[in-house]
Amino acid sequence: MPDRESALACQSLLNSQSSFKDVTYPFITLTTGTRIIYDGKPLTINLIGDTNLLLQAEDGQIFEFSLSNFDYLVCQGKITSLSSLPEKDIPSRVMNIYTQASPKDLEKANQRYQRIQPYLNGQSIPANIPQERTLYAWLSKYRQAEQKWGYGYVGLIFLDQKKGNRGRKLPKALIELIEKFIAEDFETKKQKRKQAVYNDFVAYCAKSGYPDAQIPSYKTLIAEIKKRSGYEQTLKRSGHRAAYEKESFYWELKPTTPRHGDFPFHICHIDHTELDIQLRCSQTNKILGRPWLTLLMDAYSRRILAVYITFDPPSYRSCMMVLRICVQRHGRLPQTIVCDNGKEFHSIYFETLLATFECTLKHRPATKSRFGGVCEQLFGTTNTEFIYNLAGNTQITKKVRLMSKSVNPENLCLWTLGLFYLYLNEYAYEVYDTIEHPALEGQSPREAFNWGISQYGTRDHRRIPYDETFRILTLPTTNRGKAKVQPSKGIKIYHKYYWSTAFREERD
């Protein structure tokens, strides 16, 4: 269990080792002295120029990479970060903390991160303020975790539900005795009732000299029986036909608004809109309705960094998917993300993802819609330049009294979600990206973005490989935060079953 005492004991043990091993981390800080690994070879960043950087191998050999090629290799996961840490399984401990944290733990960790965020940038903590010592303690835990594991945010997750003595209170001899009675008296073809098994167990304990205060309760026996429930237990009691159902089942912005942000990826906006087009199902040809568009836009260059469409209304899932696409395409996340006050932008999972990668989340002032003009204007441009040129667009529905059967969007609908998304990507990343923008002094978003990179440098952004670790951090949960588990078929989510061979492993 990852508590404070275990962590300190583990650290003391690891510090006693004389040799250290290199382990990888899922982000790269582009600064001089950072160690990376490329094609199995460890390299060190020696110099960062405007367009190129120099890497030095352990034998002194120098290699030159362009920043664009370096970013591409990071995004593809071919370049990863190296850090000298004593034990190679420490990153797995980090993931264990994430997976064990409850939504309440993450919510509290987000609050702690927001409180200490100003002091992470070098601002000193004022004296004699409320919770002064607490802020110092949180800041210390953040620094320790950052140095120890590479993730400072992990130090702010306290796992409150894991605190306390979680060990068994019963003596080992009694636990073994309970297991013996379950195996030899309950899991048999006699199919004895639980109460009868418990009566025999109590009689045996009394005969063996155990005091009444030490004899486990009936509820304890029931809990131990449930731990062993499943295919094997049903097979022993009721035969293979009754156990069949428990057997494992195999599943094969207004255009003239001035740019803001000091450099690319400094300030970005996320917003949603329902598109003015009807889409059909690719298999049944049934009309599915109007999709929702979520986009991430760079405020400095007006470049569209990521787009995502779905039939689901706006939710934190759409927010996390558009950030996932951003990392997949660019290998990084923005420094500051601006959004409205929608419920999806106050999600614990969304805030946790941003806090993990040290992104600042800012909300637009409530009831002041003009603050969202950056994205709203782009939504209008997308409709007029792209959507309204496609069959099945719904602009005629704004004049419903003039709509006839021949111009009804439901009768003209041709596009499927996959095909529409393919062409939407081409419009966002190739067409809109190369057209001169009124707010960019004759430049296109792509030209403004590339000019900003060359003029101001790449800054101290963290390169984030699109790997399994990042995908796990962007996984959503169900609407209720839980899912139904059926031993024979797997996990049921939204009426679909998901199965893995890991489910067959014995439970602890």
Unreliable spans are 1-25, 84-89, 249-254, 367-374
CATH topology of one domain: Nucleotidyltransferase, domain 5
Question: Residue-averaged pLDDT, rounded?
Answer: 77
Estimated radius of gyration: 29 Å
Structural class: alpha+beta
CATH class of one domain: Alpha Beta
| Number of separate helices | 17
Helix amount = 25-40%
Shape verdict: globular
Total DSSP E strands: 18
Instruction: State the end-to-end distance.
Output: 13 Å
Major sheet attributes: 6 strands, antiparallel
Q: What is the spatial order of strands in the main beta sheet?
A: 1-7-3-4-5-6
Fourth-level CATH superfamily of one domain: Ribonuclease H-like superfamily/Ribonuclease H
Structure description:
With 508 residues, this protein is α+β, with helices and mostly antiparallel strands. Among the domains are: 21-88, SH3 type barrels; 267-473, Nucleotidyltransferase, domain 5. 38% of the residues lie in helices and 17% in strands. The protein is built from 17 helices and 18 strands. The chain has helices spanning 4-15, 67-75, 90-100, 103-120, 132-149, 172-186, 194-207, 218-227, 231-238, 240-243, 316-330, 348-356, 373-385, 409-412, 417-431, 445-456, 468-473; strands at 21-25, 28-29, 35-38, 41-48, 52-57, 62-66, 79-85, 267-274, 279-280, 287-289, 292-298, 304-310, 336-339, 360-363, 462-463, 484-486, 490-493, 496-498. The chain has a 6-stranded antiparallel β-sheet with strand order 1-7-3-4-5-6, with helices on one face. The longest helix has 18 residues, at 103-120. The two termini are 13 Å apart. The relative contact order is 0.11. The model is unreliable at 1-25, 84-89, 249-254 and 367-374 (pLDDT under 50).
